[in-house]
Amino acid sequence: MSDLTALNVVELQQALSSGETTSVEVTRAHLDRIAAEDGTLGAYLHVDGEAALRRAAEVDASGAAGTGLAGIPVALKDVFVTEGVPTTSGSRILEGWRPPYSATVAQRLADAGTVLLGKTNMDEFAMGSSTENSAYRPTRNPWDHDRIPGGSSGGSSAAVAGRLAPVALGTDTGGSIRQPAAVTGLVGHKPTYGSVSRYGLIAFSSSLDQAGPMARTVLDAALVHEVIGGHDPRDSTSIDAPVPTVVEAARRGAGGDLAGLRVGVVRELGGDGAREGYDAGVLERVAEAVALLEGAGAEVREVSCPSFGLALPAYYLIAPSEASSNLARFEGMRFGLRVGDDGSRDIDEVMALTREQGFGPEVKRRIILGTYALSAGYYDAYYGQAQKVRTLINRDFLAAFDDVDVLVSPTSPTVAWPIGARVDDPLAMYAADLCTLPASLAGVPAISVPCGLSEGLPVGLQVMAPALADDRCYRVAAAVEAALGAPLTDRLGERAA
């Protein structure tokens, strides 16, 4: 049959269930493509082809292939601990570590019969917007190899957009699923905080981190979300509530009927009140997508959320503060890298040398920033004030959702930029998260769906909904996808051919 790597999850399900192909054949096709393309893209940090093919053969032998996600290859961002599989979080300080257990989401995917292709590259400890902060190598955008694939889940976005995996998991702390999805033409969803388990996710910022799917279609993302979501007693922040009906919502939205749905265009996120820093082409594609929503029957109005403009400084106090605490566990004593332990140094010297060599510049920058913000005499002025801003952002969301059902904005203010262009300008790098940060700080669900090209590069529309209303995100995103026709990544495949 045709190239198996060009098929999305739903198409692979059909091919597997009909007997047209096998999980082994699908897995081998993706491994072959990884071998051919990943030397350029740098999407993966670890691939074990033999283990993947063994797993695929087991699924085929069970007769389950094509049922749900059984037999479908997946890729995991290297921030999810995976039993016996090297897990580094993109950092030298964890080089060679093989965890003794698996993250809940990784285990749920395995229990569903998926085949793990490998672990994807990422900004070290998920700190970055370009995957240039990986301690191992940068990842490149399949649309233009001289441009970034977004971050911190850039390895996952490049793998799926480049057809090196049908679907992948990423994590989103301030936009790290949605922004890379936007700049590589994918669907990426950040679920409601607490609705997908964080157990086994190497923590960056515990009040913000959330796992979610990255896929070529809205329905593919929903199918994965349905498997990984739900309560987990091992995660103290896990919400004991049913998984929203995301698959049903995606299918309903694909019908294109949004009659009665109220859509709010956020004035402060690229609306009429805030356009500085936004690419004109991005704003044009987003406006066209909003017009498509209106054509599908939605009621569109502008909504003001004045505190959203404070999300960037608030986030870059809260997240580094939590990171400075979370990363204290990496001291070179219990696991991972250990430097200078030759018997001539005491424990404090070994820990200092290990952290000096094991952590990269961006991680050190954020640890220092967070430690300062939490220090005596500065806590109230910085961290305390940032938490107050977080409350104001929550209030803006609550007020907006009294008036509309969903909010929309660009996902990223710009298309993918050239590799190296922002490495020496942290503030410019951080600005890539302008649109995604409010939903992260409030813990509400948000999805990025492709809405066209600008300068030949993908643009994403962000859809935000109230907490636990993830199904609304999928419904609206599916309506945009249906109105635009074939998935945007199909154009990338055509161009490559």
Automatic annotation (TrEMBL):
InterPro entries: Amidase, Amidase_CS, Amidase_dom, AS_sf, GatA. It catalyses: L-glutamyl-tRNA(Gln) + L-glutamine + ATP + H2O = L-glutaminyl-tRNA(Gln) + L-glutamate + ADP + phosphate + H(+). Its EC number is 6.3.5.7. The keyword Nucleotide-binding applies. GO terms for molecular function: ATP binding; glutaminyl-tRNA synthase (glutamine-hydrolyzing) activity; transferase activity. GO terms for cellular component: glutamyl-tRNA(Gln) amidotransferase complex. Heterotrimer of A, B and C subunits. This is Glutamyl-tRNA(Gln) amidotransferase subunit A. It comes from Geodermatophilus telluris. The gene is gatA.
